[in-house]
Structure formats: structure tokens, C-alpha cells
Amino acid sequence: MDQDPAERPDAADADAPTPGRARPALIAVSLAIAVLGVGLDQTTKAIVQSTMELGEKIEVVGSILSWHYILNPGAAFSMGTSVTWIFTLVMAGVVIYVLTLLRKVRSRLWAVALGGLLAGATGNLIDRLFREPSFGMGHVVDFIGVRNFAIFNVADSFVVCSMIGICLLLFRGIGVDGRPMDDKKPRQGKEAGTS
Fold this sequence. Notes:
Layout: H1 23-51, E1 57-61, E2 65-72, H2 84-101, H3 108-130, E3 140-146, E4 151-152, H4 154-171
Antiparallel strand pairs: 1-2, 2-3, 3-4
């Protein structure tokens, strides 16, 4: 029996949740992005460490973009260098939270954004856990230098881009399940009894 056209998902809404869209497929998308992102992050860091001296700077696009190898014990702009362990806990918390949130994802856009966030958080968490000077206190490898801005890495780029995407999704009112957030609010008064 054919489905009533009124009940069919709107084809124009590419990110609307549909009964046929399997959640495992979206989780797989997120995890694939995360694995690729972590691989890219750790590979570029390994290349930098094997080909550059600490503190070395190589201009790429004049003075606008450069490779500038540093080890960062803190956050952006080297803030919080004396409390590295806090950033380790924050990154671990982000990773755990994103993995938990993936169980609810029904939106392709959210799947991509969460995959990117998981990639960035995991990439820097690996540095915090396994790089010198000690477990949980590791210094993050940063090497992308932009004039009048911070020195960062691929993981940082994933975090920033993903957070921008998440903010846009929230601004548009799109929930993790792909439904408009307004649809989740309980109706009051006479509307609650109407069909």
C-alpha cells in the first residue's frame, strides 16, 4: 500500500529525519570523519616533529601563513599553561559527551559536525595523554601560524569548524534528531487538545 503523500518526508528538506535513514549509518559517518581527522592530525604532527626543529618557522605564504613548530602546554594563545591537566579532562569529557550524543543523531549535518568535533578533541587528547612531559600533562604540537593570530594544528581546525557548524544548526533550530527544536516543546492551552 502506497504511503499517503502528506506523510512522505519533504524531498526539499535534505536534512529532515526519515524512517528509512538508519541511525547506524549516521554514526558510521561521524566515526569515519573522526578517524580520518585524527589520522590527518597525528600524521601532520609526526611530519612536523620529524622534519623541523622546535621553534623553527618556515614561511609558506609570505608572512601571512607559516609553519611554526611549538609545543603548547595550554589552550589557545598558550593560556593556562600551568594547568595542563584541566585541558586533558575537558578534552576527555568532550570525547565522552560526543560519543554519547551520537546515539541520538538523526541528522546528516549533525553527524558531520559531531564527527569533526570528535576528531579535533581526540587528536589533541592523544597529545595530552601520550606526549611529553608525562601522561595527562602532554604538550600539544602546534605548527600552523597565521599572522596576528594563534599557532594551531589540524585538530584545532576541526574543533573550530565543527563548533561553527553546530552553532549554525542551533541557530536554525535543527535538533540532533533532525527535527525543528520548536516541535519538541509541549503545547499549552487549547492547542494541546487539537489534532
